[in-house]
Specification:
By secondary structure, this protein is an alpha/beta fold. Helix content is about 30%, strand content about 15%. It has 7 helices and 9 strands; from the N terminus they run αββαββαβββαβαβαα. The strands form 3 sheets. A 4-stranded mixed beta sheet has the order 5-6-7-8, sandwiched between helices. Strands 3-4-9 form a 3-stranded mixed beta sheet, with no helix packed on it. A hairpin with a 2-residue loop joins strand 6 and strand 7. The two termini are about 15 Å apart.
Length: about 240
């Protein structure tokens, strides 16, 4: 993962199974740590031969029967905003979106997109990446000066592809390196999650339906206050 916070999430007691005495996530390794492991073994990622991915959910069957690596549109933070925007446009207003256009000013980490129906804006979404943008957004919330229906917030500037656990380039080449990472991310075949055949198989064979009790139990999480302890979640022995 490109994020150290995934270690904190995986260490939560909510994700520990008392019956099987195991955690939902076995291990969390950041890309930066993975690079360090390679270096300790005398390997260099840049000169290591590429190999195809071979995991259950990394591939889906394409129309011609071949398996391809599948990604989602919407930038390097997983495309959650775009997935919700497309779904809302279709379900609420019957509009099927092809491309989503953003309004971007001088601040590249604050973007807006909207949907107009009959000349009226019916949906307005935004992304706020980086602590400065988050602080500005929170101020607007406090003054009730927020015109958005949905805002995707990320602590890291440029989102997850520039996460704290990511492999870092030299400061002088940071922007160029991030652009290369974004290009690689976007080069993967993209499709909306609802058209992923593996997702359909998951519901048919195990979860039943999106609104089933099992789906809500396994796919939805609840947030609650966690008492502070002296234990450091980052020191969890996987």
């Amino acid at each position: 993962m490109p994020c150290y916070d995934k270690k904190l999430e995986a260490s939560r007691e909510d994700f520990y199974n008392d019956v099987y005495r195991t955690r939902d996530v076995d291990c969390v390794i950041t890309t930066g740590e993975l690079e360090k492991i390679f270096e300790e073994k005398g390997q260099q990622i840049a000169t290591t031969a590429e190999a195809p991915l071979d995991t259950l959910f990394s591939k889906v069957h394409s129309q011609n029967g071949e398996e391809v690596l599948l990604g989602t549109a919407g930038g390097g933070s997983g495309g959650y905003l775009e997935a919700i925007f497309r779904y809302a446009a279709m379900e609420l207003f019957g509009v099927e979106l092809q491309a989503i256009e953003y309004k971007v000013g001088k601040n590249q980490d604050f973007k807006e997109t909207s949907l107009e129906v009959d000349g009226k804006v019916v949906l307005r979404f935004a992304t706020a990446y980086g602590f400065r943008n988050i602080q500005n957004f929170v101020r607007k919330v406090k003054t009730k000066n927020v015109p958005y229906h949905f805002v995707e917030v990320m602590a890291c500037p440029s989102g997850c592809l520039n996460g704290g656990g990511q492999i870092k380039a030299e400061p002088a080449h940071a922007k160029e390196f991030l652009a290369q990472v974004e290009q690689a991310y976007e080069s993967v075949t993209q499709a909306p999650p609802e058209k992923n055949t593996k997702v359909h198989e998951l519901y048919e064979e195990w979860l039943g339906a999106p609104s089933s009790a099992k789906a809500k139990e396994k796919l939805h999480t609840k947030y609650h206050a966690i008492e502070k302890t002296l234990a450091n979640p980052l020191s969890v022995q996987w």
